[in-house]
Amino acid sequence: MSTPTTTRTTTTQEQPKTERVRGGYDKQKRAEARLGWLLAGPAFAVMILVTIYPILQAAWQSLYRSRLTAPDDAAFIGLQNYFVILSDPLFYQSLGVTLFITVVTVVVELVLGFALALVMHRAIRGTRGLVRTAILVPYGIITVVSAFAWYYAFASESGYVNNWLSIIPGFDPNLNWFAQTGTSLSVIILSEVWKTTPFVSLLLLAGLSQVPDDLSEAAQVDGAGWWTRMFRITIPIMLPSIMVATIFRALDAFRIFDNVFIMTNGANGTNVLSLLAYNTSIGRLEIGLGSAVSVLLFLCVIIICFTAVKLFRVDLTGVKEES
Amino acid sequence: MQILTKRQRILWGIVTVLVLIYALAPVFSIFATSFKPAGELNSGEFFAKQWTWENYGTILSPEGAAADLFLPALRNSIGIALIATVIATVLATLAAYAIARFRFAGKGLILTLTLTVSIFPAISVVTPLFTLWRQIGLYDTWAGLVIPYLSLTLPIAIWTLTAFFRQIPWDLEQAAAMDGATAWQSFRLIIVPLAAPGVFTTALIAFFTAWNDFVYGISLTSTSEARTVPAALAFFTGASQFEQPTGAISASAIIVTIPVVILVLLFQRQIVSGLTQGAVKG
After folding, report:
1. Is any Cβ of chain A less than 8 angstroms from the Cβ of B115?
2. 10-residue averages of pLDDT along chain A (323 residues)
3. Does A16 touch chain B (CB under 8 A)?
4. What is the sign of the dihedral through the CA atoms of B126, A310, B114 and B188?
5. In this predicted structure, what is the pLDDT of residue B216?
6. Which of 61-100 (B) contact A at CB < 8 A?
7. Rounded mean pLDDT, B162-166
8. Which residues of A touch B119 (CB under 8 A)?
9. CA end-to-end span of chain B
10. Average pLDDT over residues B29-42
11. Where are the domains of chain A?
């Protein structure tokens, strides 16, 4: 492993005194680039093969009328599949529900995650490890398992939650949580929030540890209260990690599938975009239409990501730092 | 270490208990359900009056009603997730090494692609993969899941490992070379011990990611040949059509959760640093 280090390259770059040295530098640079691509190339190629290639395939298929139930009926129909979807109220309902779930989960998770991060940050030595281990449990648990756990707790047959809530005056102990949109979505969001808040809180904890203690202490000496210090010092300094957490979670929540599939399978106005794509392609074998939904979903994610990056001016890749 | 008053101590105790309840309540809930006998599943109580192993018998004993669903799924889940983890970790190690150590044109492109793939909606590629896999015979096979799992595990692995590798003091290698170590010696004795914890943590996070998948598992399989546990759980049915499979699902859920909890307990510190380093830069 006698590879040229970056430091050596830089010094050569600064002093290209003679032609001979520059030639050597170019050669070295080329060798480094070749080795770099040799090592990173396989991962790069695999990522293209498993995502970019299929999405192009989906875009192509979305221009065809193609049903696996009627394979001989396939024909090129241009953008007609998109017209069908974009004039279907179910699409807009799914989009609305997806956006609603995304916004609510992200807001709740930021608040709850911040509180958890503060607890972990300030926790005394005896409990810090315990708290950190405990919150990793939801992170590690399979989403489907989380969905079943919450479903069974609330379901009217097997659940005990109604029993517990019946001590509240006016609560109907026979409430069927999964019979209306609002109550179904609450449980779906609850499961989603429970499972992913730990990740948010860990990101925020990393941001929190970058806030210098003495800054906060100095402000305290100057008479700033807890809220002032929080909003004037802590939050502004950790803003980058808040934004990273927001973007990653928003994009993740927008793709919600597992919880909805297990709990309601889209019944009672709880359909989401991912489920719509799944039910169209895999459920009804309408490959053309399903591909169009997939492409639209992908475009939504790209638009959200692009807007967020532009809006927050975050450099997610750290590419600028590199060059 | 600050000195705490008695009141602060009690306050911290309460906060800790609240966090523990938050994190563990759903797990306990499904744990308690998994020990309920069939007659008590709809009792509306948290704990069963009469604890029983019968649900575990249903999924684990050879004559259990759901064993032919659960056991193959468990085998598939472990096998497919492990293979996807190993491939992703090897490819990511090579890529992250290049990204962390070399300057070369296209590095930004690789990082951008990694990010794009990590935000990619799995469901968007399910339809094309579904038709393609059926044409080339990868539908309902291990390989048919391992390949798309790389789209989940590779980006996070590259991301995490690059962050780890950036912190390694690579100059040590040169220092060792100056002291007369051969390239292989300095790699084996200095770089490997420094890099190994990062690689291990990355593998752990990649495994969790693959283990958690449901979208691919349910779309690209149709039988117990390749169906993973999360997908199989959605296909459980009760002994009769009037009976819910609540007990069997709860018991299966606990069995696939135990390894995760053990791994989390053992490697809590590494997982936390792996998850945070990749996403937030100092």
Report:
1. yes
2. 38 44 71 88 94 92 86 84 93 95 96 92 79 90 94 87 86 87 94 94 88 84 85 86 88 93 91 94 91 94 88 62 39
3. no
4. negative
5. 95
6. 91-92, 94-95, 97-99
7. 88
8. 248, 251, 301, 305
9. 25
10. 88
11. 6-61, 89-322
Q: Determine whether the interchain pair A119/B15 forms a contact, defined as Cβ–Cβ distance below 8 Å.
A: yes
For residues B23 and A135, is the Cβ–Cβ distance under 8 A? Answer: yes
User: Of B106, B77, B103, B213, nearest to B156 (Cα)?
Assistant: B213
Query: Among B276, B279, B275, which residue's Cα sits nearest to residue B115?
Result: B279
Domains in chain B, ordered, with CATH?
Answer: 68-279 (1.10.3720.10)
Q: Does B113 touch chain A (CB under 8 A)?
A: yes
Whole-angstrom distance, CA of residue A158 vs CA of residue B152: 34
Residue B32: pLDDT band with limits 50, 70, 90: very high
* Cβ <8 Å between B123 and A138: no
Most B-contacting residue of A29, A50, A254 (CB-CB within 10 A), to test interface: A50
Residue owning tokens 């396989």? A42
Question: Phi/psi at A278 (nearest 5 deg)?
Answer: -60, -50
Put simply, whether A14 touches B (Cβ < 8 Å) is no
Q: What is the pLDDT of residue A6?
A: 37
Least confident of A178-187, B144-153, B166-175: B166-175
Radius of gyration of chain A (CA): 26
pLDDT, one tens digit per residue, over B209-264 is: 999 999 999 999 999 999 999 999 988 876 666 667 888 999 999 999 998 889 98
CATH number of A89-322: 1.10.3720.10
CB A204 within 8 A of CB B240: no
Q: Count CB neighbours of B18 within 10 A.
A: 12
The answer to whether A202 contacts B275, with C-beta atoms less than 8 Å apart, is yes
Structure token digits, residue A35:
């080795």
B93-105 pLDDT, tens digit each: 999 999 988 888 8
Cβ A157–B244 below 8 Å, yes or no?
yes
ipTM (interface predicted TM): 0.91
Residue A87's φ and ψ, nearest 5 degrees, are -110, 10
The partner residues of A70 in beta bridges, in order of sequence, read: A67
Using the beta-carbon criterion (under 8 Å), do B128 and A158 form an inter-chain contact?
no
Measure B42 CA to nearest chain A CA, in Å: 4
State whether residue B124 sits within 8 Å of chain A by CB: yes
H-assigned helices in B119-213? 122-136, 142-166, 171-178, 183-186, 192-212
In A, minimum Cα distance to B106 occurs at A37
Using CB atoms, which residue from A47, A54, A136 is nearest to B154?
A: A47
Asked if A282 and B46 come within 8 Å (Cβ–Cβ), the reply is no
